[in-house]
Design goal:
The complex is a heterodimer of chains A (412) and B (474). Chain A is mainly beta and 412 residues long. Helix content of chain A is 4%, strand content 57%. Chain A has 3 domains: 6-129, no CATH class; 132-194, no CATH class; 290-411, no CATH class. In chain A, the strands form 6 sheets. Chain A has a 6-stranded mixed beta sheet, with no helix packed on it. Classes of the chains: A mainly beta (412), B mainly beta (474).
Chain lengths: 412, 474
């Protein structure tokens, strides 16, 4: 089947129309070719095509047909502009768009354009099209000590729009930001094009090991062993050699350089949309060589009066690092999760009480050195970072014991 | 499918008899339309059609047959008036034959023999119009070229050639929808048709076949040589009672099942005021970039209300091409009123809401024995394990993070719903929107970073004395 956006100027038309299901229209038309076409992928939800053509006009009224059979143009978005261009339009050529007519049962329209004299007009037609979508994906190459990575952002454009666009300027918005070059590619029908859109070199990353009983769960619930998840933390800002534009969501395949200098695939994750100045985590797998056991060592209710209590809770973490290098471990604790573990209440959501409003403070029995991590801190979460020494050869692994003391106040 | 039959205004020269349906031999003339005017309402599927025809009327009794098979005309609305001879010709009665629902006969008495101009008016459904807009913003985003369009679509089953088109903005009251009335008539027609014999059905099909096929299309002429450039049609805008009427200059031909779009207005430089708003009830849980402009003279608008319709907004980029910003509905906007268009999230503005800390105080216990209330910690508390919490204050401390990565200063408005007896405490500019909603205002320069801090105190249980938020400036 031949698909094509037909676009014609009726130079001479025998405008006899027959009424039937399909309107037969006998016409002699010229077909001005596309001089230039641009595919705008900047808007996340809407792809825009802007094409430029040189249209011969006769003095007087001209009918310009534009049809898009078997394509997925959104007709309500079509904009027709005559571009000021004295070379093609001439200084004296003036045009007016008089009306637009839409024939029945056709993907077509006709512009009625009045021209002040014979001549050619440079026109631009802009429209939104569906089925021409873009997706982002990334290749990340981390160095051997996992402190830096090269991040390549690829754009994959899939053309299921029913129309081909030869030598189209593909605009992903980087040209606007002045940080990218113009990309010209043929977008054939049903074709997919993939290209490197941006390369961010030596992006500073930090690898973290995180436990969180509420959000990340247990590796072995019976033995109270938590999942220890590994992440690369990306900071989309200048100090980390990013921050030029938001990072769009897409799959990130992560490779790491081994000691021989070759790349090894170490995992992949769906990268979330990361605004400038924001940060995101790439989950790269589960650490088996770090063991964290979480137990509630103490929960003591102190009645203030009637049904009003303060609760003193102590969570104990027993941590062992079986790796042969030191690591940083982030221990996160969800405050609502812990509160529900240490204090059950039938009145939690009754009598206008908001269960999410929890009054708490860190107690004196906390054995973490240093302050809680500020970035993870909120009214519902507390986090500490600790350094775990490396396993020393075949000797016994040092077991660290840390305690988190939370005092819940005024619960009922 | 055979094209629907046209409205036929058939002038029958009858003899003295007024009995209509017993005749088998007719002599008919088919006077054509001299003019037609369409008044299209956008609030209902309703169009008032007024057409004039020249008809030879003889002295004495005359009969006019008017039929509208396969169209969507309201049979109860069809009227005839004698424009040229209002005192000499009058309508005696109107007969609706029982076997032909989409037909009527006018019995006319005339005291003269003359060529009369008659106006036939009726309501039809199937002709609609809608407005739409196309806005192209300047690269700076401070102004926008706004094109307004009206599109008329004809699905009435009838072709209207060279019709004067008037478009009505406003909500009218109808007790019965035209398409319902037409549907009833069609049901009756279908029932009658089902009872006809094969011969009669065949005859009917032949009649319909004759009615179709005579279709001349003048809407799309070939290139015409004119002495000067044709100007866009003016759309005159006028008010009538609570309504506005857009009248398109000259005439338009809108064949059945066609649509036609005309520009109804253009403003080269509409001043756009951009505000970033966090209003979860209106724009969802995100900071929306809202484009505001006024339908007033300063924006080269304000000559008429902006009818409801979709608006597609583009922005010129450095390459001179257009970038798509948003396609959103534009509500009816009265003269002088403000248009607010949500153009979505701007990736160049960072926005995050954090709840940093919560706590409770001013806790009151209720003692059933004696029905007493005592505040915890004030030294007069009675120890009673059966007492219950009866009142307290909740404090929530928020921090709203903002960063402006755009190349111009921005205005930010944050609307927070704070139900109950509450107090918002902040050093920020906070204004009350209603009894339980406040607006927080801020501006950020290029590259600025801000932390908007505020505390919400909500009185609960017996502490709550009212249901409204108050503002406490710190």
């Amino acid at each position: 089947m031949k698909y094509k956006i037909l676009y014609g100027v009726i130079a001479c038309s025998l405008s006899t129309f027959f009424i039937s299901n399909a309107y037969a229209r006998i016409k002699l038309i010229t077909l001005p070719v596309r001089e230039h076409v641009e595919i705008q992928l900047e808007n996340e939800n809407t792809t825009i095509i802007e094409e430029e053509r040189i249209v011969p006009l006769r003095k007087g009224n001209n009918d310009i047909d534009f049809s898009w059979h078997n394509t997925t143009i959104r007709p309500e978005t079509i904009v027709f502009r005559v571009v000021n261009d004295s070379e093609h339009n001439g200084d004296e050529l003036k045009t007016n768009i008089l009306s637009v007519s839409y024939p029945p049962n056709e993907s077509a329209l006709t512009w009625k354009i009045s021209a002040s004299q014979n001549g050619s007009a440079r026109v631009r037609i802009t429209y939104a099209i569906t089925g021409l979508n873009r997706g982002y994906h990334y290749i990340a190459r981390a160095n051997s000590d996992e402190t830096k990575m090269d991040l390549m952002q690829y754009v994959k454009v899939n053309n299921q729009s029913g129309e081909s666009f030869i030598d189209a300027d593909i605009n992903t918005g980087l040209v606007k930001n002045g940080s990218g070059k113009k990309i010209v590619l043929p977008m054939g029908l049903n074709e997919t094009q993939e290209f490197l859109n941006q390369k961010y070199e030596a992006v500073l990353i930090d690898k973290t090991y995180t436990v969180n009983a509420s959000e990340l769960g247990y590796r072995d619930r019976a033995q109270d062993k938590l999942n220890v998840l590994m992440h690369y933390n990306l900071h989309n800002d200048k100090p980390h050699n990013l921050g030029k534009q938001p990072l769009f969501d897409g799959k990130v395949r992560i490779y790491q350089q081994d000691k021989k200098g070759t790349s090894v695939f170490v995992g992949e994750d769906w990268g979330k949309y990361t605004a400038k100045e924001d940060e995101s985590k790439l989950f790269i797998g589960q650490a088996q060589d770090i063991v964290v056991k979480r137990t509630i060592e103490r929960k003591k209710r102190q009645r203030i009066n009637g049904n009003l209590y303060n609760i003193d809770a102590v969570v104990k973490y027993e941590i062992e690092n079986f790796k042969d290098k030191p690591v940083h471990l982030i221990i996160e604790e969800s405050i609502p999760y812990l509160r529900d573990q240490v204090f059950t209440s039938r009145q939690r959501n009754s009598y206008g009480k908001d269960a999410n409003v929890i009054e708490w403070e860190v107690g004196k029995k906390t054995s973490f050195s240093g302050k809680p991590l500020k970035k993870q801190a909120s009214s519902h979460k507390i986090a500490y970072q600790i350094s775990l020494p490396a396993r020393n050869g075949q000797s016994k692994v040092v077991k660290l014991e840390k305690k988190l003391n939370i005092n819940f106040k005024n619960e009922w | 499918m055979i094209k629907s039959a046209k409205i036929v205004c058939l002038f029958s020269m009858l003899l003295a008899s007024t009995v209509l349906v017993a005749k088998n031999v007719d002599l008919s003339t088919l006077p054509s339309r001299d003019s037609v005017q369409l008044t299209i309402y956008n609030s209902e599927d309703l169009t008032l059609v007024r057409e004039t025809r020249q008809i030879s009327i003889k002295n004495g009794k005359n009969q006019l047959q008017f039929s509208w098979a396969n169209t969507k005309i309201d049979p109860t609305s069809v009227q005839v008036e004698f424009l040229s001879h209002p005192t000499q010709m009058f309508l005696g009665n109107t007969t609706f034959p029982h076997d032909k629902p989409q037909m009527l006969y006018w019995n006319i008495n005339s005291s003269v023999e003359a060529l009369a101009t008659v106006e036939i008016s009726y309501f039809t459904s199937g002709i609609t119009w809608k407005a739409d807009y196309s806005g192209i913003m300047e690269q700076s985003g401070a102004a926008m070229a706004l094109d307004s369009f009206v599109t008329v679509t004809n699905y009435s089953g009838e072709n209207y050639d060279n019709a004067q088109v008037r478009l009505v903005i406003g909500k009218i009251n109808l007790v019965e929808r035209i398409d319902t009335i037409v549907g009833k008539a069609k049901y009756k027609q279908d029932k009658i048709n089902a009872l006809k014999k094969v011969e009669r059905a065949k005859k009917a099909r032949n009649m319909m076949a004759r009615a179709s096929g005579r279709y001349e299309m003048a809407a799309m002429p070939a290139a015409a040589m004119l002495d000067s450039i044709a100007e866009e049609k003016e759309v005159a805008k006028d008010s009538l009672s609570e309504y506005y009427i857009f009248t398109i200059a000259g005439t338009e031909t809108i064949p059945d099942k066609w649509s036609k779009r005309l520009r109804s207005g253009f403003s080269e430089s509409v001043i756009v005021d951009t505000v970033y708003r966090y209003r979860p009830r209106e724009y969802g849980n995100r900071l929306a970039k809202v484009l505001n402009f006024k339908n007033d003279k300063q924006s080269s608008l304000g000559d008429a209300p902006l009818p409801e319709g979709d608006i597609h907004i583009y922005q010129k980029n450095q390459q001179g091409s257009l970038t798509y910003i948003a396609g959103v509905p534009l509500k009816y906007t009265a003269i002088g009123d403000k248009v607010e268009l949500n153009s979505g999230v701007d990736p160049d503005v960072y926005f995050k809401l954090l709840n940093l800390k919560n706590w409770r105080d001013d806790i009151w216990m209720h003692y059933r024995k004696g029905n007493l209330y005592r505040r915890v910690g004030d030294g007069h508390m009675i120890v009673d394990h059966n007492s219950t919490v009866a009142g307290w204050n909740e404090h929530r401390h928020y921090r709203q993070l903002l960063r402006n990565f755009t190349d111009k200063p921005i205005k930010v408005e944050i609307r927070r719903l704070i139900p109950g007896d509450a107090v918002i405490k902040s050093h920020l500019e906070v204004k009350k929107h209603d009894f339980q909603t406040v607006d927080i205002y801020s501006t950020l320069g290029v590259g600025d970073k801000q932390e908007l801090k505020y505390e919400v105190l909500t009185k609960k249980g017996r502490n709550a004395k009212q249901n409204q938020v108050t503002i406490q400036r710190l």
